[in-house]
Write a structure and sequence with these properties.
With 533 residues, the chain is mostly beta strands. It has three domains: 3-274, no CATH class; 291-464; 475-532. The strands form five sheets. The chain has a 16-stranded antiparallel beta sheet that branches. An eight-stranded antiparallel beta barrel has the order 20-22-23-24-25-27-28-31.
Amino acid sequence: MPSLGVFRLVVNTSPDFTPLVAPAVGFNGYPGYHSSDQHLTSPLLYDANTVIGRSSPHQRALPTPPYFPAPIDAPTFDTLAGYSDYGLYGGIPFLFAAAPNPTREVLTEVEAFVLSTVSSDTQCRNPLVPSVPINWPMVKAGTGVGVAAKSLGIVRAISTTGVPASDFPAYSFFDIHVEVNLPPVAGTYSMVAFPAGGAVLTNGNALVVTNLNLTSLPPQVVYIHGNTNAVPMLFKFNNAPYWNAGDFFGYLVLSGHGTFTNDCTQEAALIAAALGTVTNSKPEMPVPWSRPSNLFPSPGSAYNSLMTDTNPPTSADVLHFTVPGAGTLYVQNLSLGNLTQFISPPLSGSAMSSNNNSVLVCQLSIDGQTFSPAQLIGPAVLKISNNGSPSQFDTSLVQFQVQGQTPFGVLLIRESPTLPSLGQHSVQPTAHGYQVSSFFDVFLELSTDGVNYIPADRSIRVQASAPPASPGSLFIKGIAAGGGTLQWLGPFTLQSAPKVTGPYTDMGAAGGPLLNSSTVSFGSSQMYFRLRQ
């Protein structure tokens, strides 16, 4: 069957891989990349022959299901030994694992898809997705096209009666394992840094995609990234001096895959389902950045609205405040900062609050075209609750009211007193600290007199910003008698020391934004080198 796909990444800044895709002197930015928020959006992708295998339908029968081993497809493409096979490739979401006997279900597997840049004579144009070289195979999945990890799924009836006539509507999911191939694009730094065959990425965790209203098989639907954290994307191969295999390029935060024909109507439907629209973007999966602590809110970060910009930038994080008889005020690029009271996540069954004299920086417009900067100041109280999970904490913006002088007079913005602004703070310990994601979905109201408030047209997601960019790897090139050349990516300073514990001293000024080199001499004693911000 034919299928379409689209995805969005947030490029990692720790270590910093943004120089690979950002604009620089003499180079354009990579198509779909936006420097202000490190987002990289794919073009619309198409596969004419997606193959999804399935088992015969059966009634769930736990704890000893008689339908295993279960052949997939006819002739048999694969055989599943049991539900434990799913644990090898991502697991089974609770909605499916908890289905009671005798719920009817079908076991599924993506056998093959190779999604390529659209090659039709009349490419559909959408402002949320870029264009890249035609006929480039950008995403593939399935062991049938050489991806080692299986992409397994389940279709289960919403009805739990076990009656074949009630098979639909149904729930469906896949644990997708992909290889993403970013092509070198003329005029960008990727022509220098990427291999001729492209930069290949793999997902470190399964990408869980779901559809909760399946009406037939084969499906004519859109699968979207489910309610999970963003998925890390890792380089598959070494490419010195730019990256090593296993280096973390960024997080996949939104994705969609639709099994239907390629025409402009279907393309628009897929992009709207996966990314949203120009005026109403989809909330992204929270990105867990590497941090030295699990504190809430994350020290050094602001909570920023999530733009879905492309090249050229066209912001999609705009809120509309329509004042009766006076027109509409547009607000975009919101950043809630100056959060200075940091607290540890509370114990199970308890809650704590962080009290701050916050600063809201944003841009305002009365015509939706020309925006002016504004800064408003006031109290913000952020609450964090532990409802029993050691890693997922519920949060809420319980008080927020700021005001300031703007190009349009004094304005006041507050959190809605009737609609809760809820969020989540997620923490996972690592060998070097923590992976932390944090966000709120905020309902705001605006006033010019402090008495009459106008609600925004929708909520807006704000997410903890990325940590400051940090150095990546040092590469050694051209070793010769008495010395060699060290290379690194990004604007960091090379340092040296006679001992691994230091002291370290700078070896010149900071490097440039792209690839940097420094010739060093090797003496009779050991020397140690590192990069600093």
